[in-house]
Structures are given as structure tokens and as C-alpha cells.
Specification:
By secondary structure, the protein is of the alpha+beta class. It is built from three helices and eight strands; from the N terminus they run βαββββββααβ. 22% of the residues are buried.
């Protein structure tokens, strides 16, 4: 199965049109997982990590790496409130503490500000990790 990564931040992001750098982060082992809608991935699944060469769905796909999924979790992301600067992240029904939340955001290849802009609305989906050393 294929996991596609955006080459540029989407129109809804505050950095819309700027490069995400996801390909380089994946190759440098600095982006260790992704968060997606649904619940279709399982430990042991093989994935082809790819990015779009240009406009999504209107350009060819560029191969980044082939990986084996090592860890998955049900994830809920709740945007920060007026008094809280970091989002609330819940994995498999357990809210992460602030230090673990910040580590997860970094391992997803984003800054806190970029993560909050990407997940500006409550979100439920799946954390998909291809690094065998990551378990939250």
C-alpha cells in the first residue's frame, strides 16, 4: 500500500504553498510516522512512502522509501484552547503528557505551530509509525 506525503503545505495551512520538507525528513530519519484518517494500517504491513511530483492527483508520484509498519495507534487530536499552547493528543484512549506530545509532534516532522495549523479542527484517525524504536 502507498502513503503519500504533501510536498507543499495545503491551502488551509498558515504556510500554504511552502515546502514541507517531508521527503528529506523521512530520508534523514527525522519524520518517523504520519497521522491519517481511518484505521486501515496494521503492524507488519508494507508501505511505499511517496510524494507528489507536483500538484496532488495531477502529477506523478515520486518514491521515497519502502517501509514496514512497526506501530499503530488510534489517535485523537484536539486543538489547543485559549489557555493551552499545545494540542491534546490521545493515543488509544490515553491523553499524552506535554513532553510526550511535543516529542510526537517533532517525530511527525512538524513544529508545534505547524502541527496546530495542520490539525486546526478536532481529528480522529490513526498514527502510523515505521520506526521500530517509537512507542508512545
Amino acid at each position: 500500500m502507498t502513503i503519500l506525503f504533501s510536498k507543499f503545505y495545503p491551502k488551509t495551512h498558515k504556510r500554504a504553498g511552502e515546502p514541507t520538507g517531508f521527503k528529506d525528513l523521512i530520508l534523514a530519519s527525522k519524520k518517523l510516522h504520519t497521522i491519517r484518517k481511518g484505521n486501515r494500517w496494521a503492524v507488519g504491513d508494507k508501505a511505499s512512502l511517496r510524494t507528489w511530483a507536483g500538484v496532488p492527483y495531477r502529477s506523478r508520484q515520486e518514491h521515497i522509501a519502502d517501509v514496514v509498519i512497526r506501530y499503530t495507534a488510534r489517535v485523537e487530536v484536539l486543538p489547543p484552547g485559549h489557555l493551552i499552547s499545545t494540542p491534546t493528543i490521545v493515543l488509544n484512549g490515553v491523553a499524552l503528557d506535554k513532553a510526550t506530545t511535543l516529542r510526537l509532534i517533532e517525530n511527525d516532522g512538524l513544529t508545534v505551530e505547524d502541527f496546530v495549523s495542520w490539525f486546526s479542527e478536532p481529528f480522529t484517525g490513526q498514527l502510523i509509525c515505521w520506526n521500530k524504536n517509537i512507542v508512545y
